[in-house]
Write a structure and sequence with these properties.
Blueprint (H helix, E strand, L loop, with lengths): L2 H31 L14 E2 L5 E8 L8 H4 L2 E8 L18 E5 L20 E3 L10 H4 L7 E3 L22 E3 L21 E3 L22 E3 L10 H4 L7 E3 L19 E7 L7 E2 L7 E8 L7 E2 L9 E5 L22 E3 L10 H6 L5 E3 L7 H5 L20 E4 L20 E4 L6 E2 L13 E4 L6 E2 L12 E3 L7 E2 L12 E3 L24 E3 L21 E3 L23 E3 L7 E2 L4 E2 L6 E3 L7 E2 L4 E2 L6 E3 L7 E2 L4 E2 L6 E3 L22 E4 L7 E2 L9 H4 L15 E5 L7 E2 L13 E3 L7 E2 L1 H4 L7 E3 L7 E2 L12 E3 L21 E3 L20 E3 L15 H6 L2 E3 L7 E2 L2 H7 L27 H5 L6 H4 L5 E3 L7 E2 L12 E3 L25 E3 L18 E3 L21 E3 L20 E3 L7 E2 L13 E4 L6 E2 L12 E6 L8 H4 L8 E6 L5 E2 L13 E6 L4 E2 L11 E9 L17 E5 ...
Parallel strand pairs: 2-3, 3-4, 4-5, 5-6, 6-7, 7-8, 8-9, 9-10, 10-11, 11-13, 12-14, 13-15, 15-16, 16-17, 17-18, 18-19, 19-21, 20-22, 21-23, 22-24, 23-25, 25-26, 26-27, 27-28, 28-31, 29-32, 30-33, 31-34, 32-35, 33-36, 34-37, 37-38, 38-40, 39-41, 40-42, 42-44, 43-45, 44-46, 46-47, 47-48, ...
Antiparallel strand pairs: 1-2, 69-70
Subcellular location: Cell membrane
Protein name: Chaoptin
Pfam families: LRR_5 (PF13306), LRR_8 (PF13855)
Length: 1328
């Protein structure tokens, strides 16, 4: 071999190696940053892992019922760990030390506090830490101190009230992003962030900040460029306070109570330079001259949703703003000099959703840099902007704004009719959106003289009827065309002939109702089309050649039509090789024929929900290599042919819920292929018997012994999740699940009628990890019914008729973590019933137990138990012997107390080179401190005696509930009952325990105390002297006559209920002593004779208020009562027995952030027009429940205040009809309400067009509130569960689809209309 050949070979080898390295890195990048839908973890089927074994990669456990972090994680390498919505209460010390985590997210777990060594071992690996919504009351500074690589810390959504500079000790040289949003921080101390010199982003939105001290940002923070202070209570822009932040570029002050932009007094030498300033949702009414003079640069400024009345001349003088948004500000008039000062800087101007009728052309011509102009949903006549200017303003053509614009939007429901030729002078346009047109047709000459750069054209709500031949000849560069909300009757076959570059075509609600055949001829020219949306029309017929010229089509949306048949061959493999998604939901299809969807190599999802499909033929879905999702929910399928699904190896989800299936056979998957993790949802059907052709029937099994599984044929299917819940299953044939025995991980059979559990049905599921058999009629379980089910982790047998359980039923389940046997008739448990050392949760509530079932758990199971629920039994007494045998440390001696190190004491002497100082502060026996009971519920028993120090044998106990018992009848003050819990207990329930006085409780760590439904006449101050950390206190339904003075000493109190007490007066001073940080207050059902409107005046942090509408007070007015509660978000009003009408009490301006109002009370019958008239928030959730309201008048929604988006919850009333609150056909129209969601289940509905408009509204919801069909619910469950008594209690969804055809506005017509009545009366009088 020559030298040259060797050199060439070497270069080739190097090149190949580099390519392989690049490929590997890209693969890794894709794995890390793209959600690929990882497979289930081997150790927990409800979690997902990107890798199978020792290196688990990315582990996600969202909403998995875990009480501890799975031990397998500690024995593996993990790159990212996501634990969301679990029940994890503690993080074991040093648990993560061998994982090498880069990112750890533990969100929505009741942690409350974090052990100081929880993150030990992650010092040099952890970069990102999320602890969101974990009920933390303080920054876990001890646990964070030595995370040397931490760049991001997210503590949002907790209950943190105070922060200090010491919280970030140890993070000074690393932390770049700190998120403290949605906490309860009211003050920022001077040194709060001074020790974080590398911090770049600080998020404090959603707190109670009303003032920022001038010294908070005085030192350090040299790199801070993003400061988010939105959703607080700031009343002014803190110019001076922020001036030291030289690198600040993004400032968010939205959703505060700021009333003006300039400061109240002149400032010297202060200039802020920002890329983005957000002042949305404030109370700014006037933009004064020089409003932005203290900003040197403002590239982007948003003032959306402010009640701006006037923009004074020179308001933007010397303001260097490039992008200005004034959307939805109720502006009705603009001075020609309104934007003076922005002539050389303003590029984008958004004035959409206002009340403008005219915009000065002179003003626009002065804006030399203007390129993007949004006038959507105004009444501006574009013809006045584009005609020749008057002589006094005559300029050269090149200086006119119309020649410079790139984007113009003048569409809208209230737009002035225009001609497309009015825009022809704008030859630089790249995006044009128009509304109503003078002509109802599009012709070639309409775009004559248009520029050649137009790419995005939107003719929205333009009243179009016809599109003529070569209509877009002069704008052939269009890539996106939107013809939605029109009434097109005719499209010439050559209408789109020149649109060879068109990528997206949208005609949602764009065709006339008379068009029932899809206009396929015009589509033939669109050879580059990728996205086609023809949803929400009345199409009935789709010719099989409709899409044969669309070779680049990727997404096809035909949702909400009346299509009766989708033919074989409509989609073909050689043509539609790029098609990824098709939506045919909410049509009238009755079957899916053979080869309807076949050999579409890139198809990933097929959505055919809520049609009339009764039968799916063989090979209807075949050879779809990448298909992942098939949704057939809400049809009338009663049979699925065998081999209906063939060769679909990537299939992950099949949804056939809410159909008419009477049985389910695995043979439909016989040729599906090697699906890796198939999830099948067959819930809400009519399945009575689960059997197949080879298994013995219900009759044969009565007389002959069941055959062996080996003698029956099997179907090759890789099922992981199977849901048969909410059927009528009474019998399951032996070995029915044999086809999935080796793969099935999750099985849901709840809400059926099963009576017994046998080995032949369940005994061979070797991979089963989750089993739900709740809400059945089970009375018997065979001793070996789970013979081979050794991997089961979670089993739910609640709400059955079990009397006893076989002795060895759970003996082989060494991985069992959760057992729910609640709501049965069990009196005793066998000894050592459960032996699993992994047991975490045990629910024996609502049975007939007469003693604590200590002996049912093996020592290993008892030692690791975290949660035990024994409520609703008949246990008469509790003693230490009930717990000592199983839960107590086997070593003799006293239980070790948990040290209570204060923040001042910790780590002042600990340095990095003295690690043992840190790690030896607490050392306990492993089986005592970390593996014992933390949550115990003994409520609703027959307890009359609790022995002294009974609970001291539970050294980890934090949550205890002994409500609805009588343990204090012997006159004890209770101090001995809680002996041993003084330094541990955080939650205590003493509801309805017949207390005449509060027992002495030396519980220094108690955070929550329930004393409701007792006989307490008062709360002496000495009883709360030791409860200094109390945050939640329920004193409802006692005999209190005044607000207890003892509550004044509870400085940490955040939640207080005084409901149902005989308190006679709420004076302005009654609540002054209560912590001003109180966030929840319930004062319903008091016996008030005096109610002063300033009673809540000092509660600046109040977020939730529950109050009764005291009808005996003549001047009772809720807005006046809430004048000083700027942070209020949730309001519940309970109507008292004297009130039958409600509304006028809400007249006036409500707090700006109030967005959730609930009205309740059985005496309520009528709602008036003032109900929501004072709401200032743009979005509102209005809930009306447990009332006697039968019909809601349309006038309730005539005065919606500033509300634009409404969610209406009317469940569980006596309502028969409800009007459509939406006043326009789409959201975003000024001064108009749009319904975002509605709930009507649980009412005696009269199913006519009084509620039939819901179907038409649902179409609009899907069209405007859903980004795409896959991310949106086609038919909401509420209309499936709502019933129509006049239609034999059929579901509302069924009646709407089969019997009613109501238009959008029918809801108004069916409601009493006062104006109509008055008008008819006047006409009658005139006639007489």
């Amino acid at each position: 071999m020559s030298l040259m050949a060797v050199v060439k070979f070497g270069y080739t080898l190097v090149a190949v190696t580099l390519l392989l390295m690049i490929w590997a890195s890209l693969s890794r990048a894709i794995e890390l940053h793209v959600d690929t839908g990882h497979p289930p973890c081997l150790f927990q089927a409800l979690c997902t892992c990107s890798k199978p074994a020792a290196d688990l990669g990315i582990v996600t456990c969202n909403h998995v019922p875990l009480l501890r972090v799975p031990s397998t994680i500690n024995n593996s390498k993990v790159f990212m760990l996501q634990l969301t919505g679990n029940k994890i209460r503690d993080l074991e010390p040093q648990f993560f030390q061998t994982t090498g985590l880069y990112r750890l997210a533990i969100n929505k777990n009741p942690l409350e506090s974090i052990h100081e060594e929880a993150f030990y071992g992650l010092d040099n690996t952890l970069w990102e830490l999320e602890l969101r919504e974990d009920k933390l009351i303080a920054v876990p500074s001890r646990a964070l101190r030595y995370l040397q690589k931490l760049r991001l810390l997210d503590l949002s959504g907790n209950e943190i009230t105070d922060i200090s500079g010491d919280n970030w000790r140890g993070l000074e040289n690393t932390l770049q992003i700190l998120i403290l949003a949605d906490n309860s921080i009211a003050n920022l101390p001077l040194d709060a962030f001074s020790g974080l010199p590398l911090l770049e982003t600080l998020d404090l939105h959603g707190n109670h900040l009303s003032v920022i001290d001038s010294g908070v940002f005085r030192d350090g923070m040299s790199r801070l460029n993003r400061l988010l202070l939105g959703d607080n209570q700031l009343s002014y822009i803190p110019y001076e306070e922020l001036s030291p932040l030289r690198q600040l570029r993004v400032l968010d002050l939205s959703s505060n109570v700021i009333k003006q932009v300039p400061p109240l007094h002149d400032l010297n030498g202060i200039k802020l330079s920002l890329d983005l300033l957000k002042l949305d949702n404030n109370m700014i009414q006037v933009l004064y001259p020089g409003a932005f003079k203290y900003f040197n640069v403002l590239n982007s400024t948003t003032l959306d949703r402010n009640p701006i009345v006037t923009i004074r001349e020179d308001a933007f003088r010397n303001a260097k703003i490039k992008s200005l948004s004034l959307r939805d500000c109720s502006i009705s008039d603009l001075s020609p000099a309104a934007f003076a000062g922005l002539e050389n800087s303003l590029i984008s101007l958004d004035l959409s959703e206002n009340n403008l009728t005219m915009v000065s052309k002179f003003m626009l011509n002065k804006l030399d840099s203007l390129r993007f102009l949004n006038l959507r949903e105004n009444k501006v006549d574009i013809s006045l902007l584009t005609t020749n200017m008057p002589s006094e303003y005559q300029q050269s053509a090149f200086n006119s704004f119309q020649y410079r614009l790139f984007s113009l939007d003048v569409s809208g429901a209230n737009s002035i009719e225009i001609s497309l030729q009015d825009a022809k002078r704008m030859r630089s346009l790249r995006s044009l959106s128009v509304g109503k047109l003078l002509r109802q047709s599009i012709k070639t000459e309409d775009f004559l003289d248009f520029g050649m750069e137009l790419e995005d054209l939107k003719l929205f709500g333009s009243n179009l009827i016809r599109i003529e031949s070569s209509a877009f000849q002069y704008v052939r560069t269009i890539k996106t065309l939107d013809l939605s909300e029109n009434n097109i009757e005719y499209i010439d076959p050559f209408a789109f002939a020149e649109l060879h570059s068109l990528i997206t075509l949208k005609m949602a609600r764009g065709l006339s109702d008379s068009v029932i055949i899809l206009p396929f001829e015009p589509l033939k020219a669109l050879t580059e089309l990728q996205y086609l949306d023809m949803s929400n029309n009345k199409l009935k017929n789709v010719p099989d050649t409709s899409f044969h010229f669309l070779k680049n089509l990727r997404s096809l949306n035909l949702e909400d039509n009346a299509i009766e048949h989708f033919s074989k061959g409509t989609l073909q493999a050689d043509i539609h090789g790029k098609l990824e998604s098709i939506c045919l939901s909410l049509n009238q299809m009755k079957q899916i024929g053979q080869h309807t969807f076949v050999e579409l190599k890139e198809m990933q999802e097929i959505l055919i929900e809520d049609n009339l499909i009764q039968y799916i033929q063989r090979r209807a879905f075949a050879s779809l290599d990448n298909l992942k999702i098939i949704k057939l929910k809400g049809n009338r399928i009663n049979e699925i042919s065998e081999e209906a699904f063939q060769n679909i190896p990537a299939l992950k989800e099949l949804d056939v819920s809410f159909n008419k299936l009477e049985t389910f056979k695995f043979s439909i998957f016989d040729q599906v292929g090697t699906a890796t993790a198939l999830k099948v949802n067959a819930s809400y059907n009519n399945i009575i018997v689960l059997t197949d052709s080879n298994a013995p029937s219900i009759f044969s099994s009565n007389f002959y012994p069941p055959p062996k599984a080996q003698s029956l044929g099997t179907v090759s299917v890789n099922l992981r999740v199977l849901d048969f819940s909410h059927n009528n299953v009474t019998y399951i044939a032996p070995y029915y699940f044999r086809h999935a025995d080796l793969t099935l991980s999750e099985l849901y059979l709840s809400h059926n009628k099963l009576r017994n559990i046998t080995r032949e049905v369940f005994g061979s599921m070797v991979m089963l990890q989750y089993l739900d058999l709740s809400h059945n009629h089970i009375y018997h379980m065979e001793y070996d019914c789970f013979k081979k089910v050794k991997n089961l982790q979670i089993i739910n047998l609640s709400h059955n008729h079990l009397i006893e359980l076989p002795v060895g039923m759970f003996h082989d389940m060494q991985s069992l973590t959760s057992v729910d046997l609640s709501n049965n008739n069990i009196r005793n448990f066998a000894e050592n019933l459960i032996i699993s050392p992994a047991l975490e949760r045990l629910d024996f509530s609502d049975n007939e137990l007469s003693r604590v079932p200590t002996n049912c758990l093996a020592p290993a199971a008892a030692a690791n138990l975290v949660e035990l629920d024994l409520s609703g039994n008949t246990i008469p007494t509790v003693s230490m012997s009930d717990f000592v045998q199983r839960f107590r440390n086997p070593e003799p001696g006293e239980w070790p107390e948990e040290s209570d190190y204060s923040d001042e004491y910790m780590y002042h002497t600990a340095r990095r080179d003295h690690t043992r100082v840190y790690h030896q502060k607490k050392q306990y026996p492993q089986n005592v401190l970390y593996k014992s009971l933390a949550w115990l519920d003994l409520s609703d028993n027959h307890l009359v005696r609790i022995e002294t120090a009974s609970f001291s044998a539970l050294p980890k106990l934090k949550w205890l509930d002994i409500s609805n018992n009588n343990p204090f009848n012997n006159g004890e003050r209770g101090n001995n009952i809680f002996k041993g819990l003084e330094r541990r207990l955080t939650h205590l329930g003493l509801k309805n325990v017949s207390l005449m006085f509060i027992p002495s409780m030396l519980l220094s760590k108690l955070k929550s105390l329930d004393l409701s439904y007792n006989n307490l006449p008062s709360v002496p101050p000495d009883t709360t002297a030791n409860l200094t950390r109390l945050r939640v206190l329920d004193l409802s339904y006692n005999d209190l006559t005044t607000v207890p003075v003892a509550t004044h000493s509870l400085t940490e109190l955040r939640w207080l209920s005084l409901s149902g007490n005989p308190i006679t007066a709420l004076m302005n001073t009654s609540l002054y002593g209560i912590s001003p940080r109180l966030e929840y207050l319930d004062v319903t059902r008091l016996r008030l004779r005096i109610f002063e409107l300033g009673a809540f005046g000092k509660m600046y942090a109040l977020r939730t208020l529950k109050v009764t509408s005291y009808s005996n007070h003549r001047d009772f007015n809720i807005p006046r009562m809430l004048t000083y509660n700027a942070g209020l978000e949730n309001l519940l009003v309970e109507i008292d027995e004297l009130g039958t009408e409600f509304g006028k009490e809400m007249y006036g301006a409500l707090p700006l952030k109030l967005n959730n109002i609930t009205i309740t009370g059985q005496s309520l019958k009528y709602l008036t027009q003032y109900l929501i008239s004072g709401v200032q928030s743009r979005s509102l959730r209005l809930t009306i429940y447990n009332t006697s309201v039968e019909e809601i008048a349309g006038e309730v929604f005539w005065r919606p205040g500033r509300v634009r988006n409404l969610t209406l919850d009317l469940r569980n009333n006596y309502i028969s009809r409800v009007p459509n609150p939406s006043q326009r056909g789409w959201p975003g129209v000024p001064n108009s309400l749009f319904l975002e969601d509605i709930f009507v289940a649980g009412n005696p509905l009269i199913c006519d067009c009084g509620v039939g408009w819901i179907e038409a509204w649902d179409r609009k919801r899907r069209q405007y509130l859903c980004n795409d069909p896959h991310s949106c619910v086609a038919t909401r469950d509420d209309v499936r569960f709502a019933t129509c008594p006049s239609y034999e209690n059929r579901s509302l969804s069924d009646v709407l689809s089969r019997d009613l055809d109501c238009d959008w506005n029918k809801g108004f017509l069916s409601s009493p209309n006062t104006f109509v009545i008055i008008g008819m009366s006047i006409l009658t009088l005139l006639y007489i």
